[in-house]
Every structure is written in C-alpha cells, then in structure tokens.
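S.,

Sequence below, as promised.
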Amino acid sequence: MPEDMRITERTDADLDTLVEVLWRVHTDGYPATWPDDPRAWLCPEGLLGAWVAVDDDRIVGHVGIAVPGPGRMPEVTRLFVDPSHRSRGLADGLLDAAERFAPGPHIRLDVTEETPAAWRLYERRGWRLTGTGLADWSKPSGETPLLRYYAKRVG
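The prediction came back faster than expected:
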C-alpha cells in the first residue's frame, strides 16, 4: 500500500462519503441490489468494528467485522474499494485491519462465484474455501448467485 494511503477506524462522519464510494462500486455490481438505506446497509446487525481506506484525506474503501447472530463465527462484511483505487493494496490493508480485530480464532466471509478477482485475493491471503452454496438473496434479474464460503484462522 502506498505511503500516502492509510487505514483508519470508521466513524459515523464517514458514512455519507462511504455511500458515494459505494455508489461508484455498485456500477461494477456490488452490492448486487442498491440498498434502500445505504447508510444502514453499511452498519449490519452485529457490527463490531469497521475501517476505511484513506488516500490523501479522501475515503476510498471500507471493511467491517460483524457477528451476525449468537453462536455465529465473526465475518468480514462490506469490503469494497473505489474502482479508481483498486490494485494498490488497499483491500489487503483493509483485510489486515479486520483480521487483527476479529474476536476468536477464526473468521469467515462469502463472495460470489462470478468475482474471481476477489476470491483470488482471499486465497492469496491464506483464506480457505470451505464450500459453496446458493445465496439467500437474488439479483435484480431474479438470478440467485452461487457463493463461495471462506474461513481463516486469525487467533
């Protein structure tokens, strides 16, 4: 990651800017359906912490760690980087922050089969594919995507 870029803890003041970044990311298909309330979407149930990638005081990426329910494994959630800032190591920096913060010995994530650049990133970082399955949501086209499930030992 270039020296002029940094990862910092997200604050509520970052949310409006993150919605703008998310809109640019959405043109590439993430999230598959634009949320009714994107600020709330950035704060999923069970969110424990979130970080932003900053380039010269401009927010250009995001990641969170959440525990989606009692007894569930912590998960990486809402990871995205502005298309204009990809391939600069920001996703690695965001994942480093999330992995350091995660409670417990393991964390998980899921990613659509149709995003090989994302799942190659996870595999390069030591994430292990644990299975595949259909999503519990559909794209605007009505298609239900196939998800790849990953886990990583962090503790």
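Helices lie at 15-26, 38-41, 90-101, 116-124.

Coffee later?
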